[in-house]
Structure formats: C-alpha cells, structure tokens
Amino acid sequence: MKIAFIGLGNMGAPMAANLSKAGHEVTGFDVAGATAEGVGTAASGPEAATGADVVITMLPNGQILRSVAAEVIPAMSPGAVLLDCSTVDVESARAVADQAAEAGLGALDAPVSGGIGGASGGTLTFMVGGSDEAFAKARPLFDIMGQKAVHCGPSGNGQAAKICNNMILGVTMIATCEAFALADKLGLSREAMFDVVSTSSGYSWSMNAYCPAPGVGPQSPADNGYKPGFAAELMLKDLGLSQQAAEAADADTPMGQRALELYRAFVEDEGGTGRDFSAMLPRFEERGRG
Ligand code: NAD
Fold this sequence. Notes:
This protein is of the alpha/beta class.
C-alpha cells in the first residue's frame, strides 16, 4: 500500500519504520523535521497524503489532529482511509471522522497501548472505532504495527475504550502505591505484600505486571529508578481526557477525578515530570496523612 505517516515522534517513527520494513511505500511528514528509517520525506502533510491509500496520524493532541486533518483531507483520494493512532478526546475523533466521511473517505480512531517498546517491537494493541469497511482495509497494517486490534464500534469508540482503560490503570496504580506505603508503615515486607496481593483479590496489572516497588515482582520501571516506561505526564493527559469525556457524558467518576488530581499535583508541583507513573510509590512513602 501507499501510506502517508504524519507525526514521526517517539511512537510514530518506529511504527512508520515497521510499515516500511514490511514492504509498504511510506512517506512521512513531521513539523519538527523528524524522520524514520526507510520512510520517504514530504514537505507537508498534504504532499504526503496525495495519492495515499491510508494516511496515518500520530500526534500530540486533539487540537493538532483537527488542524492536520483539515489540511490533509482535501488532498486525499476518495476511498482512502484516515487512520488516527494518537490519543485524543472522543469529540475530536468524532469530528474528524465526520469531516472525512463528508469528503468520501474512511476514518478510524485507533489509539494504542504498549508504549515505545510496543511501537518498535510491532506489538502494540489497537483500540479501533469506525466502519467495518475501513477496519478491514487497515487490518493488515494493524497486524504489522501490533499484535492485537479490537474493533470497538463506530467512530470515537476506540478513544472511549482507551481512556476508560487508562482511568482504571491510573486508579489501580495509585491504590497499589498507597497500599504499599501503608504496608511499609505497618511493618510488612514488600516481598510479603507482593506475594500475598499478587495472588489474592487485590491483584491487578499494576501489582502483578508492573509492580511499583523496586526489587519486587517482575522487572518494571521501579527497578530502573522510575525512568519511563509510561511517563506520569502521559497518565495525566489520559486522565484529563477521561474526565473531559465524563463531563460531556454526565458520568459520575469520582475515583478517576481523584486520580487526575493526584497525578496533576505529582506532575506540576511534586517533581513527577519525566518519571514513570509508578513513581507514585516514593511520593506516598515520603508523606504522612497531613
Ligand atoms: P511525540 O511528541 O514524541 O510525537 C508527536 C510528533 O508529532 C512530534 O514529532 C511532533 O513534531 C509532531 N507534530 C506535532 N504537530 C504536528 C503537525 N502539525 N504536523 C506534523 N507533525 C506534527 O509523542 P509520542 O510519544 O509519539 O505520542 C504520540 C501520541 O501517541 C500521543 O497522542 C500520545 O498520547 C500517544 N501515546 C503515546 C505513548 C507513549 O508511550 N509515548 C503510548 C500510547 C499512546
């Protein structure tokens, strides 16, 4: 396929390189001049998008997605698919899909989980919203860039699945970290805490697969000085999107709201920027109730 790839950052560059390695003709554009291995370079988004079967975007937020989409949609050929893999608000995803449909294009929102490691290893999970037809067309690309693609329903549903998942993740990571800090103060060893919880009803991905306590459980960013991994500021972004969606949908999400407040304080006032989101554990360790 002829593919345009717009946004060659930490995630986009390795994803584009994997598509090229698999034999697709990939042309990239990044406003910062970033490039990717095996990927041709265009002078603008519309230039990359001209004649492409699929235009992939991997951008920082919904506002940037909307402005890039407004530029590239008129350059795309009828029947082509606009495939956005960024994490953005549900409203922007749906607005861009509507615009694409009006221009006779297919559109998919397909945010990912798996981080930079998943992007370079081609093992991402895609959560996809959009038509069956567009999903079928993009399927071979998901198979190259990832190990799993779940079709979650119409446009916007991929983003909805992503932010609901990450709201659970933010809340369970905080719960796991505060429980470790309490266990410390009660004189329980971290090893004992892990052994019990990871095989009892408190288990979760945060405890079992990504344990925030160094030296305990599987290898995780905690064993590497809390270098991300999944940075606290990215968790803050996703929790912000989930609360934005909850407000728009009138959904009561008190735990998600509290997780947002804690990550915001951590990132903005407590030195959390550039640290993994599991570094909530040292944050709780240092504090009392006051
Ligand atoms: P990044 O900041 O490294 O990359 C974004 C790229 O977009 C940058 O290179 C930037 O120059 C480019 N860009 C910005 N405006 C542009 C424009 N108008 N035209 C062309 N290019 C433009 O971010 P990233 O880590 O690659 O993340 C991309 C998306 O993936 C985000 O939405 C993020 O939330 C999501 N995501 C990231 C991770 C992760 O671990 N990094 C994991 C899952 C999802």
